[in-house]
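Summary for the steering committee. One of the milestones for this cycle was to obtain a three-dimensional model of the protein with (R)-mevalonate bound, which we needed before selecting residues for the alanine scan. The sequence and ligand used are listed below.
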Amino acid sequence: MEKTSRISGFHKMEWAERLKIVQSFSGLHNDDVKLLQKEGALNFETANRMIENVIGTLQLPIGIAMNFLINGKEYLVPMAIEEPSVVAAASNAARLTRDKGGFFVTSTGPVMIAQIQLVNIADGNATRMVLFEREEEILSIANSQDPMLIGLGGGAKRIEIRVLSTPMGDMVVIHLVVDTRDAMGANAVNTMAEALAPFIEEWTGGKVYLRILSNLADKRLVRARTTVDKKSLGGEEIVEGIINAYTFAAADPYRAVTHNKGIMNGIIAVVIATGNDTRAIEAGAHAYAAQSGRYSPLSTWGKDAEGNLVGTLELPMAVGLVGGATKINPGSQIAVKILGVQSAIELGEIIGAVGLAQNLAALRALTTEGIQKGHMSLHAKNIAVMAGATGNMIDEVAKRLVLDKKVRVDRAKEILKELSNE
Ligand code: MEV
């Protein structure tokens, strides 16, 4: 029979039935199916409520980044990531910052923007004014959607209105500015925007299309700063190297993207561990990096009056502690417990500090021994396993691969053969 992906009612099927269908479609081995059937902290029932058509869960390592001193408080930071060296690098960089007090972080508060797109209007400027005249009503309709948020001191606080001149005529965009407290806030602000749409159409005679949050969360910024003692860092030469690396990123978008990728290594690992929306954070960060019209580094590196290295980082940080996967996924709840955070603001601030630490670690490695040495020892272990090494052999084969500077599966197989003959 012809293979087809048009399988009706898949979403209503039991777990075993879904697995059977995927197995026969893709030719999965029975052992593959058994692995999919293994439940971890996130069991099938919970996973099946999180997304649709679930057939299993995918695990990632969680490592703890050590040495983080942030706003005078000690933190152990859980990071969920597949890339070797990231956790060790963050821990090493955080250790270097401790002599000068670690990381100092502030934020603007958990303020999100919902956008409402209004079209088919005669005059954008006049419509803008009509809507401002309705600001109180707009806020009250928005706030009637979420009494709990209001009870916690959050809610829609004000509106901003922009008139965009487009090939389809004037487009009025209403920004509803909402304090979402400990929630990431997507659901809260989208509900408000959708509730407002019919009223806005009635008041203006226009047509509302999109009603959705903006991931350019530039009212929800986290700002981090650190100073690294030049001696702890390894001397003036390294300070100069890191400032040169930053200057390269500031002058060249090709480098700025990689510079920011290093920052996101740390940020996204904590975002995943705590069950937050990685795509929202990535999209917001990169849009923020491009706000000047040219893609730029999210961090800066310079030196203080004594010649110590100083770093700063600023980016949108739309993360929450309530609602979403953070509350549902038991692993994320444990990550939040390890962090010991009390609010979404505190979580965002930790993530900012981790981003800056990760950037420091990458630039220090890049301006000194290069990135490969650190990467290679863990990578070599994976290669050894791929070549068939088990138990003590994994470390032995990995050690020889690194010594040979040939971290390849073919070489690992040769070494394995040599070792088994010994
Ligand atoms: C690798 O995952 C991250 C780096 O490329 C970051 C950087 O170049 O700054 C090392």
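Key point for the committee: The chain has four domains: 10-50, 62-108+228-370, 111-213, 374-421.
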